[in-house]
User: Fold this.
Amino acid sequence: MKRALRNTDTSMFIKADGGETRSIDMARSFSSYDEAIAFCRGKRLKSVELVVHMDDNSQLTVPVQSRHLSAAQ
Assistant:
């Protein structure tokens, strides 16, 4: 299973450096939702969703609300 962020504007996955890629295999992997949110805050990413890619190639998409991306919580 892999958890990766996808830009909802471009439909591309987010790499470790904050850049984008079409391949989920090249995207940064996260161990949890909270880790992904912290990464978004650090890179100032907006308009993203968390994609959980299962071993059987199925996917679950979890919306990331913009209120979770603001630094002040």
User: Anything to note?
Assistant: The mean pLDDT is 93. Residues 2-69 form one domain.
